[in-house]
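As the next step, I wrote out a protein sequence along with its fold in token form, included below for the reader:
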Amino acid sequence: MPKGHPITRRQLLRRGAILAGGSVVLTGLLAACRGTTPEASPTAAPAPAGQATPTPMSVITPAQSPTPATTAKRGGTLRVAIIGEPPALDPQFTTATLTANITWHMFEALFYRDKQFSPKPLLAESYEFTESNKVLTIKLRSNVKFHDGRPLTADDAIASLLRYSKLSGRGRNLFTRVANLDKIDTHSIRFEFKEPTGIALIHLAQVDSFIMPKDLAEAYPDKGLEQFIGTGPFKFKERLPDRYIALVPNEDYTPVDGGADGYGGTKIPYFDEIRFIPVPEQAVRGDGLVTGEFDFAEQLSLDNFDAFKAEPNLSLQVTLPYYFYGAHFNKSEESIMSNPKLRHALLAAVDVEPVARAGFSRPEFYRLYSSQSAPETPWHTDGGAEYYNQRNPEKAKQLLAEAGYDGRPIRWLSTKEYSWNYNMALVLKQQLEAIGVTIDLQVMDWATLVRTRSQRDAWDIFITGHESYQHPVLHPYMNPTWPGFWENAQRDQLVQQLMGETDEARIKELARELDRVWWEDAVMIKVCEGATLRGYTKKLQGYANLPDWFFWNCWFA
């Protein structure tokens, strides 16, 4: 740096030169899994292209204990720095995590995921499976109102679920098994399934199965919502593009009893307002958190972890298990990547370690394993592991020749709004160009990327992440309409079997087969499971350290 120029706060962060005194918290899922011995994945390929044995992330010792919780109180505006503009405020219309994390403050589903990720009633009061899990009867709570004051009824639930069955990939998968969905009375509905479907509650505990007024569901049958009326603890106030999305308390909200529990239970809106502020530059999010411009910031730089940890007024959340990341291929006929030999050529070339390090800074922030599911889950397997982390450029070149690749540019969509996305893309681009592949890296904002990836003729590869702790049938790419457009009859059969199976050993076997088919069809270049870093002011109380963030039951000290 030239002499005579003062060092800015942002430059200090980049250099990691902040004084000591911060605290670190680990996500509740990891804490719940502590002491669990993960299943060791076997060698993925002959040495040196082996697969690392996954191990849970070690607990980071806080430099200072988190501030003790204070008595909950109402008031204040919470300023949340998010990675950019969400592509929509309708989680049935888009699978973007950012959309889900904002909108579940407004929208609620019949069930929620508790701290063990099991489904529990939310808008439902009770439920009953009968006829060997072929009939599901759900009784709705009678004291729930929408944000416009109208009471929740069975008609609203049915209309919303029918919209979910058409717009959501998960909804389409679930409804392939639904024979009938009927109204029993004003506050009761009944699913009749073609086959036993015990997994139905897991689907109905996801935010994309949210319930809205019947007239709203019918007014937007095939496009994103433009009115946002739900039952949640916060309601929509305004959206000023590139400035903020503002939510305010739902004063008529009636929470369920029993206390907070995971992503549901008792939910109280304490803040006068929550503002979700798009801040695409990662350094600006971090700088604003340190200076007090923001109260909470997501997707902070893992490179600057030590600097953030040293900040006396901040708490940090490192989340792992979290998402696994990789490059999805466009498998539609409109893309060059519809050629499976070309996809396998790219798989063979990749050395995942430097890609993971580029995305997630250092080894304690990522894990290398082949499965779609984290080691702590019952779905973690070694199916197809021989295709992971092959590091075999000679094999890759041979497959390129067999695929008839002629140097045509491969269109790769990327964004800097998620730093891991761009950083991983750069290293993968370098590795693939080394075997003779031409990469056209197109950088854009995340909302544009999400819109572009839905166009079958507009791209060939993009990077994204998927929840490593979710049941594998919930991954969006299990539906052929999700970008990537993966169609596979074996996949469909395995998904349907998993949706009806209850035997643990059989579920493990089916999950292994699903992993194998996923790799054999070269759906994507899986790189790693990566942690995410969030930071928040210590005056923010009640924050639940779970993989996905939310701000009901939170307040300012």
